[in-house]
Design brief:
199 residues; Rossmann fold; two-stranded antiparallel ribbon
């Protein structure tokens, strides 16, 4: 992963997309380690995490994750899900965050040198092209090693660089504890329940 030391960097994480990609590879993300990994070389200006929340539930399985991220260096962007019934009469939940993510990338692009987009959604190809035209480098993080691949070919081709999520696994996987200088392991992150998958 090439980040120049003087680069102003921002992470834009499509929460449900990254969750699905990591699960398809059989591991969970440690978001503390993820932020540390990307802060090692460049100057992380912002780290955004986008997710929809089911507001009418007494307990949302993703709420503890949202709260933890909010207190630990991430800017949370959330909105309530919408419930609808499809043509086959099945109850579906919709909570797409693409517009929110795209607006934030465009807004912040004048203050960045490098955008890291954690999503494989091909709908972001035009967004990537737009910020590249402003001189911002874009690296996409997703996976081609799942079945089916989670990265759209047109998004991967448009990006300046592509990082295979499997290649980051050792550095950002939850549960692979490191030793700190006094021989103690890191405080474990809270165990979050599975994130809901939203259509």
């Amino acid at each position: 992963m090439i980040i120049h030391p003087d680069e102003r960097v921002a992470l834009f994480i499509d929460g449900s997309n990254l969750y699905a990609a990591a699960r398809s590879l059989g591991f969970d993300i440690d978001y503390k380690r993820l932020l540390e990994k990307f802060s090692e070389n460049g100057r992380v200006v912002r780290a955004y995490y986008y997710t929809a929340l089911i507001e009418d539930q007494e307990y949302s399985p993703i709420r503890p994750l949202v709260d933890w991220l909010d207190y630990n260096g991430y800017t949370m962007v959330t909105k309530p899900t919408k419930e609808f019934t499809d043509t086959a009469g099945r109850r579906k939940i919709k909570g797409n965050m693409d517009i929110e993510l795209a607006v934030d990338v465009i807004d912040l692009s004048d203050h960045l040198d490098h955008v890291f987009l954690f999503s494989g959604d091909g709908d972001f190809r035009r967004l990537v092209e737009y910020v590249q035209a402003k001189g911002v480098r874009v690296t996409v993080v997703s996976t081609m090693k799942s079945q089916p691949p989670m990265i759209a070919d047109e998004l991967r081709r448009q990006a300046d660089a592509y990082i295979e999520l499997r290649d980051l696994q050792q550095a950002v996987e939850r549960g692979s504890h490191r030793q700190n200088s006094d021989g103690e392991g890191d405080d474990p992150l809270p165990e979050f329940e599975e994130q809901i998958e939203i259509a």
